[in-house]
Amino acid sequence: MKQSFIPCRLFGTVIISLFTILASAQTDSVDLARMSLEDLLKIKIATNKEQVLEEAPSIVSVITRKEIAAYGCRDVSDVLRLVPGCEFGVDVCGQGGLLFRGIWTPEGKLLIMLNGVMINDPGYATYNFCGTLPPSIIDRVEVIRGPGSALYGGFAEVGVINIITVPSKKGNNVALSGNGGLVGSNGYTVDGNLFVTGSNEDLKYNINIGYAERPLSTKEYDDFFGNSVRLDNNTAFRKWHHFITEISYKRLTFNFHRTYFDFSGKDGNYIIGEDFLGQNQDIYNFSSNGTALRYDAKIGSKFTIIPQIEFLSGNSMTSSYSPLSQNGIYNMKEGQNMQRIKGQVTAGYNFGKAGELTIGAGYIKDIAKNTSALGTPGLFSPMGDTVFSVYTESKYILFQYVAKVRSFGFTAGTRYENTSFGEAFAPRIGVTFFKEKFNPKLLYGKAFRIPTPWQAYTRSFNAGLDLVAELTGTMEFEIGYKMNDIFKTRVNTYFINIDKPILYIGTANSYHNFGKIQSLGIEAELTAHYRKSRGFLNISYNKPRENTSESFVTSNKEYFLAVPKYTLNLGGFHEFGKLSIGSTFTWYSEKYGESQNHAQGLGGPDNTRYGSILLTNLNIVHKNLFKKVTVNLSVHNLFGQKYLLVQPSYGGHAPMPANDRQITLGAKLNL
């Protein structure tokens, strides 16, 4: 009782203190800060057309580099915790995925891009967030909190995340950054990045090369079947490597990324794997290679045509050993490889006051290659025979019209995609109003999620050759209000309906279209922006609707599995000359997961309750020390709360400890 009382009392004290500081700063001149940086920041992910947040026909969040640095974010998962409705869960082999608006987004429900190029793993279309993409490379993170298939296609079902790296600077510049610190009881963290950038009148370039390592946790992990292991840098490591570059010459832009992520999934499929010859054998890797070339051609003052090509390759989850490979079919060591080839052409015409029209067409080819552990073909073909490789195709056209009539904005668009799994159709329509202080939005969109060839044709499972695209409809309504030059608020409500989601069925050992997911929620935000201070408060509420299938919810259908019904985020920072002090607080209400009895097959659907938790972070930054050096000291999970990643399904996976207390000292040197 005493332990829970202290964080709650401190939490209340800091809330009062934060807004007292912000209120006291009101005497500062605000002429240079009448609009927040988010207002001034141009975004493109909502329509591929530059707009401010209030005019974008989507519910959009933008986390800027200044905020990322001020709050001491360690990776992209820390950044997303600042966004309403975000939480994380766990799946096989210790993978940390995003829960968003109550929905488990891995396996193709969320599009993640790096500088506009997809980085979802090409096998399962998921992303392992914990320990990836260090903040030193990030300029901003743009998040569409809603459907994006009309523009982006098959993985942008419930949201889109675009991570933008630090842009080029004038002249030639070199910067070195690094962090080191302690994690939990016996762990350590270290990361470093080399940033090289330059530009002249025609040529711009930037290069990031870096490494990061830390454990997921240093606590004891117990599976549901009587096995236990102490997590640390050996048994629960996360090791990240990256090489990322963007080069532009006049209107031609070239992007390349190579990311390589090694991680330990000591829990395997759902049972802790035994060491072999004293070494942890549950070591996995996910790599992503992306190359993109784009040309922005302007013909006159009103017509634009943009051809672009992308080539992606990588593996989904490779291992030298895994419980999943013991059947002699699934070779995770060398035989698994996926590729994507994409070509697209879009054309836009600006009619002036009459609006702007965009049309486009494209082609996507997904290729999966696999050799079984026995050296035989590791895939099924669409006809059912065994093969070494298989591919699927998508051909699509898209259309979008954006117009502004006085204070009203109108957006209508659609995407039609003909795929190897059938046809998919994603219309969207939006009406916005933006005048002075008042900013409502009414939005409706359909979206889809296309199966991957790996899920449909791999011999690791009984192939789901009858898979079709899952379809989603989303209704959103938002009201924004600017109280004064300092405070802004917005409230949105949403309803998401996913029909026949693609789901792994353990009893059949295959993927199938099964059931329904319905999510209803509300999100509210308050932001404050002064010349030297900034603060935010957001609250989200989520609940599954009664038609949601039993596989995704608790036995009483009151909660999505692994998802807290309420989430509250509070943060703020103030600049005292060269010194900046920032703090964030994330409170999750109780959440539920599968019980141990149910995992062991000892009863029907049954759930275990995990209590509410408060994560408290503190970050201190000193800029321009010795003119060219910036140093920071950060503490995450200050009170050492026991944070658990819970599996959002009845998959027999016990909750995984994560996010231990971490103390980090970092520095950045501009050469």
Could you walk me through the main structural features you see in this protein, from its secondary elements to its overall organization?
The protein is mostly beta strands and 671 residues long. 8% of the residues lie in helices and 52% in strands. It contains seven helices and 42 strands. It has a 22-stranded antiparallel β-barrel. A five-stranded mixed beta sheet has the order 1-7-8-5-6. It has a three-stranded antiparallel beta sheet with strand order 2-3-4, with no helix packed on it. A hairpin with a 4-residue loop joins strand 30 (502-505) and strand 31. The longest helix is centred in the first third of the chain and has 23 residues, at 2-24. The termini are far apart. Mean pLDDT is 87; it is low at 1-42 and 322-332.
Write the layout of secondary structure elements.
Blueprint: H1 2-24, H2 37-40, E1 60-64, H3 65-70, H4 76-80, E2 86-91, E3 95-100, E4 103-104, E5 110-114, E6 117-118, E7 138-144, H5 149-152, E8 159-165, E9 171-183, E10 187-199, E11 203-215, E12 220-222, E13 228-230, E14 237-249, E15 252-264, E16 283-295, E17 297-299, E18 303-319, E19 337-350, E20 356-369, E21 379-380, E22 386-387, E23 389-405, E24 408-419, E25 422-425, E26 428-433, E27 438-449, H6 453-457, E28 470-482, E29 487-499, E30 502-505, E31 510-513, E32 516-529, E33 533-544, E34 566-576, E35 579-588, E36 591-594, H7 596-599, E37 607-610, E38 613-625, E39 629-636, E40 643-645, E41 656-658, E42 662-670
Parallel strand pairs: 5-8
Antiparallel strand pairs: 1-7, 2-3, 3-4, 5-6, 7-8, 9-10, 9-42, 10-11, 11-14, 12-13, 14-15, 15-16, 16-18, 17-18, 18-19, 19-20, 20-23, 21-22, 23-24, 24-25, 24-26, 26-27, 27-28, 28-29, 29-32, 30-31, 32-33, 33-34, 34-35, 35-38, 36-37, 38-39, 39-42, 40-41
